[in-house]
Structures
1.
Amino acid sequence: MKKRLVVANWKMNPESLSQAFKLAGAYKPSRNSQLVVCPPGVFLQPLSQRFGRKMAFGGQDCLWEQEGAYTGGISPAQLRSAGARYVILGHSERRKYFAEDDKMVNCKLRAALAAGLTPFLCLGGGLSAGVSESKLKIAIRRQFRAAVGGLKSLSRTVLVFEPAYAISTFGGKRVSADEVAGMAGFLRRLATQRFGSRVAAVSVLYGGSVDKATFKSYRVFGRIDGFLVGGASLRPDEFKRILQEFDI
Ligand code: PGA
């Protein structure tokens, strides 16, 4: 059976390593799902050394080469050596603040897979609230096809439906559970159209203002395999409840 995933995207938080230790130390991973914590890169190694037996770790981004002259970059191989098994790619904030485009996401995805990481491929960047369902699907299809360009298989890639407008810091528009379930089906269809029926079971996560209030409505559908959680993952009591309830 596929393991359900709860991914904590800490973004550029917290300020210090001692606060990072405190936050991870307050988490109570559940038995039936895999908790993946994605902290700022500088905290990866110390956190994975201290908590690696309780939870898994991931990067929030990576570059498309394993080493080289890319000032400020961090490579998939370096993430691995710091204890990461996963990496978030194509996040809306990378696209908005770091001018990341589809081509870069494609190169990053290939490099991450080559280094043995499991990528969380975010789809839904750059979208504004009020976009029609057909335009949303066209944009997601374009991002997906560009991201997987040249790949022979999806391999371990996990797909994440995360429309920019649903992210708490970008307005946090509530996406209905129906829409989440519908888009999860749409992503699975895109994957099978491109890679064949063997990827019908690809894992699909939802991200965007998942918190203790919205969480329950999403999980009843059973059509998604987990969540990418930003803001609520920085509130340990709330995040603990999400993990507990996901276990039921
Ligand atoms: P949010 O962030 O849960 O605060 O909306 C999710 C994300 O950006 O991955």
2.
Amino acid sequence: MVIELMTENSGAKVSKYIYGQFSEHLGTGIYGGIYVGKKSSIKNVNGMRSDVVNALKEIHLPVLRWPGGLFADTYHWQQGVGPQDKRQLIVNTNWGDVVEDNAFGTHEYFELLRQLGAEAYINANVGSGTVQEMADWVEYMTRSGKSPMADLRQKNGQREPWKLKFFGIGNESWGGGGHMRPEYYADVYRQYECFLPQNNKKHPIYRSACGPNVDDYNWTDKVVKYAGEYMDGISLHYYTLPTNDWHHKGSATNFPEGQWHSVIQKAGRMDELLTRHSTIMDKYDPEKRINLNVDEWGTWYDETPGTHEGFLQQQNTIRDAMVAAINFNIFHKHADRVKLTCIAQTVNVLQAMLLTKDDQMIKTPTYYVFDLYKNHMGANVVQGIGKTPKDLTYTASQKDNQLTISIANTSINDSNEMTFKPQMNYSKIVSSYEIVGNKMDAHNTFEEPDNIVEKEFKDVLINKDGIIKAKLAPMSVVTIVIEK
Ligand code: AHR
């Protein structure tokens, strides 16, 4: 079966922010994993681990959501600014019940973004904060010249305001963020949004509302109906678990074959969720002005045995790479509505890109999928016509002179072939890379960091008629970049 690639029609643009990430105050996601402090013996710049920053720069991390998650609804920003040794200790009640010293606060977050070259996505505290607290925080971050909060920021060492691109009002307000009903949340959202300072007319702050939990379609309906005119985007949270039991989710490694298949199938459910939520949004927003942003997604397994309870530490295998590829392919399909997503989470937590242990750092299979897909950022989706062969999932996009095709083969045992015929003639392979697992839970460890790395993918040919044939190994993800 040949897939015809409709390269003559330009599909929606793949927003680069689809490749965003999420870093919460959770376990060693920030402390130890990203931030070690200036005095650490681990190589750092202004307290940020250099190995981690460099690895994230390589995949062009475009946006980083912070400070939570559930943590955001207990976070009081004033406790995290000013001299570090005078900052107030807090208890992280959501994650591990540990005491934190607030050394990583607003100034450190923007310093991290500066080093990464990434945009800000801050989540306000709606659950236990106030409208005034939120308004003061935004004034603190974004106001130039003289004002109470701008003066305080300058006193704390930052003369110029920062650029705050994305701003979330509430996190899981239907659950740990306040147990609200959608009608009530819609009003709370309207109130917070009303007092959100918009000082910079050139770069208005993007307003993101708390969206539904998985398939809570009523939430989407009510929140968009009553508050849609005041938002730029609404978020969706959907995690992939091997089982349906949050108390026995399943292991990240050493799992039965059935849990390979359940994870692949459940990751694919993202398509149905985006389709149905987006259809509801169409009722109030047929022009698709409001984005549907999946600002938490990824796998969630039982925590690695022996690790601190509540730190959500898990290994990351070739199965996770499949989940990442499946999700990206779906996000591209919905690129007209989905403009931003954040995988949960960047370092050491859930489906992480990077794992650290003291001064060591390893890249996970998921990291390599982000790397394989980075050429899609800012490209236009190319629609494919034809039946996708069993166990395969793909996406294609074009930008400038280049056609980029990414494919995942989710079969555990079989090699699988895909054939494409672009309408326009693309004839020169510019690059072609793959990652491959040799067993279902193939992964990298601190002892063996290179079990899974990107290698050149050789099983691809373009014939004289411009037909592209690729043969994928079992459990592999490939990206092929072709020029005219
Ligand atoms: O990513 C971990 C947690 O998952 C987040 O804090 C919360 O928003 C979600 O329930």
3.
Amino acid sequence: MIDISQMTLEQLESTIESCALCPLHSGRNHAVPGEGPARADIMFIGEGPGFHEDRQGRPFVGAAGKFLEELLANISMTREQVYIANVIKCRAPGNRDPQPEELTACKPYLDRQIEIIQPKVIVTLGRFSMYRYFPGQSISKIHGQPRQAGNVLVVPMFHPAAALHQPKWRPLIEADFQKLPQLVAKMEQSGPIEPEPKAQQLSLF
Ligand code: URA
């Protein structure tokens, strides 16, 4: 694998666009590196591109994306203000769950994205990004409960697509979103703490 450790966000995104590290590359129309400013207070990490994302090369542009934009609007934010990424960058056939080797192949990209963007708050959307920080946990038990991981506060939330399909989860994700402005403010006040321990980073998946 080429050295991505010094890449800018732009260089990283174009490397991801031509990535062939796992078999998913052969079925894609477009890889979906992620989207947003190179420095953002909030970073969202979803699962992987779906049909529309694969067509457009952009994250969260289908129904789940519309809902994500609505949730952001509820806290007076737009998608242009946040960085939106996924744990896997290419669509899995039929939107099946990502396989361990696909997560492993994509992990360095997400690690580098986080390193560049330096978000104050990371919101994990759904199980697979939650497992990065909360292995083996259940989303219905821990959603909305922030945990500090080095310099960043990680907040697990339901995936917007899941909340669209399960109406009882909709008010829960809406309530969890309402916490975000305060959590960002809290991180602004507390300032940098310490780097995320390397051992923890390495054992995430
Ligand atoms: N669902 C995801 O997890 N990511 C996307 O980019 C779109 C839908």
4.
Amino acid sequence: MRMTVIGTGYLGATHAACMAELGHEVLGVDVDEAKVEALKNGKVPFYEPGLPEVLERNIEAGRLSFTTSYAEAAAFGNVHFIGVGTPQQRGSYAADTRYVEAVIDDLVPQLEGDHLILGKSTVPVGTAGALQERADKLAKPGTTVEIAWNPEFLREGYAVKDTIEPDRIVIGHRAGDSRAEETAREVYATPLSNGTPFIVTDLQTAELVKVSANAFLATKISFINAVSEVCENVGADVTQLADAIGYDDRIGRKFLGAGLGFGGGCLPKDIRAFMARAGEVGADQALTFLREVDAINMRRRQRVVDLSREELGSLIGKRITVLGAAFKPNSDDVRDSPALAVAGQLSLAGAAVRVYDPQGMVNARKIIPDLDYAASLEDALRGAELTILATEWDEFKQMDPVWAGGLVEKQLLIDGRNVLPVADWQQAGWRIWGLGRSTHEVCSTLPTSPVYATSYRQ
Ligand code: UDX
């Protein structure tokens, strides 16, 4: 099949490359010339494991190309995916859908024949219907344009796998005449032949599936983080508690990783946009609990700053090393990153903050240029009076506590992700705090959580 993918950020670039990997002929479209130029040359403008290989392979095979021209996109094929961003609006909880609307405005007037536009971006419920009306007004006489919605569930860091082997495919289309299901069956023939669940529904349900999934994940994380606040006050261990409740199939251990909480380009803005839209459609009370989910999440960041102050006294002039800047490991994305938020707050409180992240440094520097960015983990640790593990990269999880102890000035560490083997670190002479694992010396008696090493996120 021939198809275009409009928007080449994390979502669009991955989708374009993976559709080509599935054997389709794909044209990626973006208004950003520098991004398109990089992609044409086989360079992914962000860090995503496995994606550069897929991109290069498919460019070389002649199945994948990129352009800034909507005219080219209109002539290329009859199926178009939208993968542009829907960030939070300034000064509001609502999502900003202007980029999605701009795609319709720029593409539709140039189309001829019968076209299907499949939205992948996360949008407030009702957006697809409004875009259909917009498209109907802009389409040339004799041209038909159908808008359907095909939400994307990929996780950064696992984007290639999640796109090629999704755990479900959802397609929402209008009532009556629609060719969306038939086309989606062709587009996703490979995953569907492997038994991937396929849910065909109306537009509103498809739009809501995505925000509901993210709201549930955010709620799960904030649930365990709320429990971790109680654990801290009574000397209980939230990681053992999560293991214990996670063995119940109905609960499950995934996304019960207590710590600094969630960030990134999706979960925080999606729960806010969901709340905003619920109010607009008259379900004001339905999602007010998401405010609490948001607040619990933000409190964890503050907790790490408070804990640092409790340990160091005044923060002014104290050398604090923050390990991590990306919002999660295997990503260079620093959007709403808990790690960077903590580093920024400590710096504002007067601490001399040094940050190290295996991939997120370039993006972090753009957001907070005046932090001290270390060249390596070793460089980051040297002379630290307090170390905070804020993003659970393997490089940090596998750090040798004896080696690290020889570099820092004070062997004091806050494990903001509860991923270090506490006993090993204590044996090496470290004083170590885990969020939700008590701030009194109880840590020293704790066995290592049996599943701490298996990632809770996958
Ligand atoms: C999320 C959804 O998982 C994905 O389906 C959707 O398409 C986009 O949004 P992503 O933003 O890539 O994906 O990150 P995810 O892996 O969900 O992690 C989100 C945040 O939650 C990270 O900051 C992570 O550190 C945090 N997290 C995750 C926890 O704090 N605890 C956990 O147990 C799991």
